[in-house]
Amino acid sequence: MHRIRERIYKVLFTLLAFASLLFLVGITVTLFIEGLPVFKEVGFFDFVLGKSWYPTYEPPDFGILPLILGSLWVTAGAVLFCVPIGVGSALFINELAGKRLKAVLKPIIEILAGIPSIVYGFFGMVVIAPFIQRLLNLPVGLTAFTGSLMLGIMATPTVCSISEDALSFVPRSFREASLAVGANRWQTLTRVVFPASASGISTSIILGMSRAVGETMTVLMVTGGAAVIPHTLFQPVRPMTSTIAAEMGEAVMGSTHYHSLFAIGLILFFIILVFNVIAELITRRFRKKLGLGR
Amino acid sequence: MGFGLLFLCISTAVFFLGSIIYFITIKGFKIISWDFITQVPREAMTAGGVAPAIVGTFYLTMGAILFSLPLGVACAIYLTEYSPKSFVINIIRMSINNLAGVPSVVFGLFGLAIFVKLFGFGVSILAGCLTLGILVLPQIISASQEALLAVPQSYREASLALGATHWQTIRSTVLPAALPGILTGVILSIGRVAGETAPILFTAATFYNRGFPKSIFSEVMALPYHIYALMAEGTHPQEQTQIAYGCALILLALVLAISAAAIIIRQKYRKAYEQ
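Predict the joint structure of the above. Result:
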């Protein structure tokens, strides 16, 4: 009796596990099925390196280079903002904040990491964009810079929280040894603690970058949406994610436009894959270096 | 000097995040009232309340969690308790991690192709729930897996040594010990689902419903999408922005409260564990 029940549970869990894996595999398969045709219809290089994106013109142009560059510029700007601020904040929380302050700041930062992206997009649109427009005397406030700033603010709690985790993994003995040989706190921090956790911190940066590349609503609302190759940070761009979000509603099912939006999704999928593989490799090295198991 | 720089960093972060919350709270408070929360929109979205959007967000979130919770926890149980430790399982674990990072708009594409078109659910609550459910599935699996792995091996051995079967051990020993961890992960995903916009753009959401949704096959209003639509569509930008402030405040309060709850649970559990 027991044996049968055990068998039943095992089969049940196996089935449920494979059902969820099936869905997750399904995403990849769907992206390939719906995205690959565009490489045949337009050609891989014309698609990825094409300089103009006019999907609804006659004849249409399906070159996503402006979109890729849009994503790149916005992400790069965001990283320039969130990495120093996020890592700096993590160092502050870990090293300078007293036990009490740390116990308050750490969970607050984590809670802030959950603010929905639509809120950032909305705030960027009604407050930051008009401010930037007036401050820099631009024709429009909805620019790559505005997007970078909002994404940077958004990714800061993520970068900070994961960096702080990495810093707190550094064994106490490292610090004590450094202080014992006469280094002061700042020297200990910059030459011992920081290098020891550097790979953990780089993981946090990569995760912050994946968040910035994949973010949709914020960039859709604040970057202005012009599908042109950007020359400065202060002009409107149209990143890949917002192109999908803005155009999927109108794309006719089965058309080249429809397929090309899936192909953009496929490319995003691979970008994230590369980021994650790098993060995984770094994490492994980090664990080995500090002699941590798992 | 150096330490001053670090202080500057955290002040900047706190300043920006704080001002977002401050602005939205101040502006949102002006418009929020009992009617705003309980009434349907009137006069071409320029007056009245946003009750259908609140209800819609509730339906979508609950539906998504009801779908992904059993699947995700079962998958985690299988991966940690039943499956043999092998190369293949390692690959599966890595792909689940990867999917957790895939942009939410890509999940929206999947939902559109599979649930809306292939399964023929149309733009509906059902399609939206399934899409959002799959979006948080990787997160629920990883969180549950982590919680299960944190249960000391000695618990399992003790239970098995007392003559409990494999399933009895899982049900009465492993799951109760892992429950707070699993719960934290699930609550955090509830917060994430409630705030997601991109996946429901073309699978579930609509700008305007006359009233509340009638069945799981109807389109639905949702708070995050409503904010976007108020800013992107319609003809009365001024009034609409005010309503959007109200929606943003409700959403922000909702999501922050949910994640705060999750983190408080984890904090308590950590303390209990350390003692």
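Residues 2-35 of chain A form the longest helix (34 residues).
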